[in-house]
Amino acid sequence: MISAFPALVMALSLLLYVGEFVAVSRARIRYGIKAPAVAGSEEFERIFRVQQNTLEQLVWFIPSFWIFAAFVSSSWAGLIGLLWIAARLHYAVSYCREPETRGPGYTIGFACAGVLLTGSLIAAALQLL
Fold it and tell me: What's the whole-model pTM score?
């Protein structure tokens, strides 16, 4: 049975995303970018790219997270998920301040999702054997 820990981590990861799309909405007002436009101010574009990149990462992070939690370890899934959230926060802050410094946050977040996906694939394959 999966514990509440991964559920909490998943809720936090979704809260991170909600915060990012709220930031985009606020940036639209601050920089005068009317929907559907997504260009016009470099500051707005940075905030928008953070939100879009997080969405792209969530597509494979979420299923990998839950498969890992179910077949490998819910505790380890939760810990790796917390690291993913911290990395995405670092990515967001870095990208908005100075885009060239976003690398570590992106790399760590990508690696976390990669570990979850790899572990999920191995565990699922082993279950079939």
Answer: 0.95
